[in-house]
Request: fold
Amino acid sequence: MSDLAARLRALPAFPEDMPDLDLEQLPADPTELFLSWLEDAIDSGARQPHAMTFQTVMADGAPVGRTLILKDLDEHGFHVSTRNTSRKAHQLEGNPRAAMTFFWRESGRQVQITGVVHALGEDVSQADWLTRPTSDGTPNPEWQVYALQPTWIEFTQSRHDRNHKRVGYLFEDGRWHHGQVTTPAG
Ligand SMILES: Cc1cc2nc3c(=O)[nH]c(=O)nc-3n(C[C@H](O)[C@H](O)[C@H](O)COP(=O)(O)O)c2cc1C
Reply:
């Protein structure tokens, strides 16, 4: 084993005092659970609790991810904002399917979200642009808010003993269905 491999394996992973995920008390709507985990992350004082990896698909079918900030969550889905001239915007034009991965290391929580992305209206996009700290009050026609409408969401609560608890939600026939995920978590 290389020195790097040995050092990586020696790094601490999950502490003993992690929150629990009560599989008997799950809400029917996964956005409720998402919002409670986001609130916990905000309350923890961790930097950028609203940051996530946003994955799109390139023209050749290869996935690509980058960090974005969550801007809102409403009936249209999970909002992000970016330039409509960016690579990710072009990738979304070619293939609107995308994914988000949130990781809150302090609580050992991960949320994976898959869905379809829609561009929201000019009014929403400009309102977002104008609230940026660097805004000088001038509108930016390149600025665009997108919403990812989720079809699948998986929550992972990691545990010290590596028996991570996972629950998956699938949107089918007009409603959410959920169940414990029991495939090996690693
Ligand atoms: C913490 C963090 C937050 C970021 N938030 C955003 C964001 O909300 N919108 C955005 O367009 N880029 C954001 N970026 C930059 C993107 O990660 C990315 O570099 C940029 O949008 C270009 O991506 P693309 O070339 O794949 O389109 C953020 C980067 C970091 C490190």
